[in-house]
Structures are given as structure tokens and as C-alpha cells.
Protein: Carbohydrate ABC transporter permease
Amino acid sequence: MSTIGTPVPLATVEEGIPNARKQRRGGRARRIRGSRPGFWTYAILGAVFLSAVFPLYWSFVIGSGDSSTLRKPFPWIPGGNFIENALSVISNPAVNFWPALWNSIYSSFLIAAAVVITSTLAGWAFAKLRFHGGPGLLVFVVATMAVPQQLGVVPLYILFSELGWTGQIGAIIIPALTSAFGVFWMTQYLRQAVPDELIEAARVDGASMIRTFWTVGMTAARPAAAMLFLFTFVGAWNNFFWPFIVLDRQNPTLPVALSLLQSNYFVDYSVVLAGVILATIPLLLLFIFAGKQLVSGIMAGAVKG
Structure:
């Protein structure tokens, strides 16, 4: 007998609604419970964290000891000589610590800011503007990342020597004002983060291309630009090869200045690693104060995207 059209008792329907709700809640709870990280996730993250923190801790252990710290058995607990070793680094006349620190801050900030500006402009052009040869030019820019930095050292040194810039801080700023990786990074981000309809709407409203870039492109590019600024600043801060070649002892950056601690006949590694810790502290402060804003910016950009 067909049951189509047979009325269902209201009591049966009312009893079925709570059961359906319980089933939905149970399925949602199982999905949420199943999406929580397990033991191996925390174990892998813990191993990665320890492998990243251990070199810094080991440097602090050696930097807080004395000249006999490296003798066996190796210590695992920091000593009490870190302040003394740090003061010996700061007061060393061969290091020029404070001028070197200022040179590193000044050059790293200018390089990071210039890379963000030029990369965002170029990324906007490659991502949202249509012009002949655009894809091929982007491939050429990306291909330059395969060229080792060492190949350009000799021509760059000859050029800056002819200009009389050797020994000056501008010699390490000018070659780093733009970055092929930064252009590629901003191109890929703007291509996905900014819809073409938004640009067309801004142009219909009468905005010029510069105004559209400033109001639409720069607003959307803030998370990626912040990450690019941070990575570029860290890379410029830690750069040693080119500043070591083109700068002199009277006007070094901090990594070049700290390398002079190893130029003596006897190398006190506790003092050397105390200097390494001093050079790492500004980067740690940068990550501490900017980390939360960077993560929140990335999450906001992901939600908007």
C-alpha cells in the first residue's frame, strides 16, 4: 500500500527534531574533535622549536662563561660572565660597536623600506596591468634569483671604487634597493588578493591608476608587505659577505665589526658569542613587538581573500 500523502503524527515530528539536532551536534563535535592536533603534531612542533632555540641557548651558555668554557666537559648551564663579556665587546676599540650598530639599523631599515616600495609597485604592475612583454619580463626577473651574488662582486666593487663609495654605507644600500624575490612575492599576493572587479569599480568612479594603487593595492598588500619588510630587514642585518668586502674597519656594519673579534692570535669564544647574542637581541625585539601585528595582518588578509 502506498504511503505517499499519509499524514505524519505531530508527536513523531516533534520527537524527531531533537534527535536530528543531537545528531548534528554529535557530528560537529566529532569533526571539531578530529581536527584537533594530535600527539605527533605537538612532538614535531616541539622538535622544530628545540632545534631552532638550541643554537641561541648554546651561544648564550658559551657567551656567559670564560675562556675555559669550551673545555670538556661542556657546560649546559649559563655562567655569570655574560655582562662582563658583553661590556668587553662594547668597549673594544677595534669593534666600534655603537657606530656599527647604528650602521646596521640604518642600512637595514632603508633597504627593507625600499624593497617593499619597489616590489609592491612592480608586483602591482605585473599582477594587474596589461602590457606587452609582461609575462616574459616577470620570468626574467625571477630568473635573476638563480644568479649567485658572488658573480657581481667584482663589477660592483670596481664601480663603487670608481665612484669613490668604497668604505661608505651607501655602497651596501644602493645594490639592495630592490629584490627579485620581493617582486615575485608581491606579484603572486596581489594577483590573488585584489579582484579585477574592484579595480574596474575604482576606475569607473574616476580614480587614476596611481590613486587606485594607493587606495586599493596598498591596502590589500599590507600583510604581504609587512612580511617582506621583516624578512628583508633580517637578511640585510645578517648580510656579511658584501659589507665585509666594500666597507672598512672605521665604518662597518655589526656583523663585520664582530668578525674583528676573531682577528687576534688568541680567540676568546666567550667574548665572540657574547657579541653574537648582542647582535641577535635587536632581531628578537623586532619579532616580539612585530610578530603579533604580522600574524593578525596575515589572518585578516586571508579572511578577506
The two ends are 55 Å apart (CA to CA). The chain has 13 helices and no strands. The longest helix spans residues 269-304.
